[in-house]
């Protein structure tokens, strides 16, 4: 049976790619058109598989692949979070240079799940979807997300991820070295003389938060800090989450104590809570964060953190999504983003 659009409902572009033993991106470039040439042997295989399977070209997919859409979509956890807003600023600046419009969708508390966000975006036919929200360590949710993205890519869309790797067919990832950055921060704090650590770990089911917690723990272990000297409290990745989490800690009065929050936003909330209890960050207890969000310019004492080029990450994510792959790869690659430890007033040497 053939649908009104002329397409056999049982044959997708993904089927053609699988039969031809090429990537979905390669099959899309052959079927839907691209400015980048595909190797003749790969092109012949895709066309032969298309004819054999009875695949019918989707006109909407062709227009999307050729750039008819003038929008790109950015999926973030919470646009009010300075981490995401800084990335969004980079995406918007890069899009503006290309005369593209940016649609922003959130997946934070009260928002859509990522797969639901992608499903809602697909009818809008964005040229690319950029996913900046942290991956959930939930295999069922991840499978649903990858299914939605596969359908979107099959119609000519482009995808890029920020932060963690993914098993998706696009494999366009701006990889942020969260684990390595947290590990280096821990070693730097030990070098300053700190011996007792508490971690505000954020949600336990978020990949970014987990990577930062694990990296920090690895750094402490390499410096001889026993696990029994480390206290971990989980909570929302928000200012209020950090405020509430620090109040649960038991070891704040221990000499050489330092609180590490997996995001600067949580660290700022923790600092406010400590001050309300009569403890001055940087004098009575050390505090460190991660990200180096712009807001820190107005925070006192100046917060020790792992600095990430958030604006540049946003630019890179859009450029990566829209780039054609290199000749020897089905998808373009981005350089890993490494954080830089910034030691400031909130963690003075002991």
Written overview of the protein:
This is LacI family transcriptional regulator. Residues 324-350 are annotated as: Disordered. Keywords: DNA-binding, Transcription, Transcription regulation. Residues 335-350 have a biased composition (Basic and acidic residues). One of its GO terms (molecular function) is transcription cis-regulatory region binding. The protein is of the alpha/beta class and 350 residues long. It has three domains: 13-63, 434 Repressor (Amino-terminal Domain) (Orthogonal Bundle); 69-176 and 310-322, Response regulator (Rossmann fold); 178-308, Rossmann fold (3-Layer(aba) Sandwich). It contains twelve helices and eleven strands. The chain has helices spanning 13-20, 24-32, 40-53, 59-65, 82-97, 114-121, 139-154, 178-191, 207-222, 239-246, 264-276, 310-322; strands at residues 71-76, 101-106, 128-131, 158-163, 173-175, 196-200, 230-233, 257-261, 286-288, 305-307, 340-342. The strands form three sheets. A five-stranded parallel β-sheet has the order 2-1-3-4-5, sandwiched between helices. Helix 11 links the parallel strand 8 (257-261) and strand 9. The longest helix is centred in the first third of the chain and has 16 residues, at 82-97. It is elongated, with a radius of gyration of 23 Å. Mean pLDDT is 85; it is low at 1-8 and 166-170.
């Amino acid at each position: 049976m053939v649908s009104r659009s002329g397409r056999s409902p049982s044959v997708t572009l993904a089927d053609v790619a699988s039969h031809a033993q090429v990537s979905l991106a390669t099959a899309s470039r052959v079927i839907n058109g691209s400015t980048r040439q595909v190797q003749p042997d790969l092109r012949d295989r895709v066309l032969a598989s298309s004819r054999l399977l009875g695949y019918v070209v989707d006109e909407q997919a062709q227009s999307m692949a050729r750039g008819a859409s003038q929008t790109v979509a950015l999926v973030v956890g919470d646009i009010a979070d300075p981490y995401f807003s800084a990335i969004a600023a980079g995406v918007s600046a890069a899009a503006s240079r290309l005369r593209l419009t940016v649609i922003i969708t959130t997946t934070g508390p009260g928002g859509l799940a990522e797969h639901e966000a992608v499903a809602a975006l697909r009818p809008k036919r964005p040229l690319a979807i950029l996913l900046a929200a942290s991956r959930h360590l939930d295999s069922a949710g991840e499978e649903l997300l990858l299914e939605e993205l596969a359908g979107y890519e099959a119609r000519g869309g482009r995808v890029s991820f920020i932060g963690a790797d993914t098993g998706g067919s696009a494999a366009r990832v701006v990889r942020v070295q969260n684990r390595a950055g947290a590990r280096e921060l821990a070693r730097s704090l030990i070098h300053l003389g700190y011996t007792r650590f508490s971690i505000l770990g954020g949600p336990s089911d978020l990949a970014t938060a987990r990577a930062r917690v694990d990296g920090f723990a690895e750094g402490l272990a390499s410096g001889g800090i026993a696990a029994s000297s480390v206290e971990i409290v989980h909570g929302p990745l928000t200012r209020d989450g950090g405020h509430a989490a620090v109040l649960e800690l038991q070891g704040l009065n221990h000499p050489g104590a330092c609180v590490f929050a997996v995001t600067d936003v949580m660290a700022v909330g923790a600092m406010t809570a400590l001050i309300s209890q009569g403890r001055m960050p940087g004098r009575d207890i050390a505090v460190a964060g991660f990200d180096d969000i712009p807001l820190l310019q107005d925070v006192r004492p100046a917060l020790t953190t792992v600095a990430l080029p958030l604006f540049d990450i946003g630019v890179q994510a859009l450029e990566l999504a829209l780039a054609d792959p290199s000749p020897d790869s089905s998808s373009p690659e981005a350089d890993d983003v490494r954080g830089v430890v910034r030691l400031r007033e909130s963690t003075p040497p002991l």
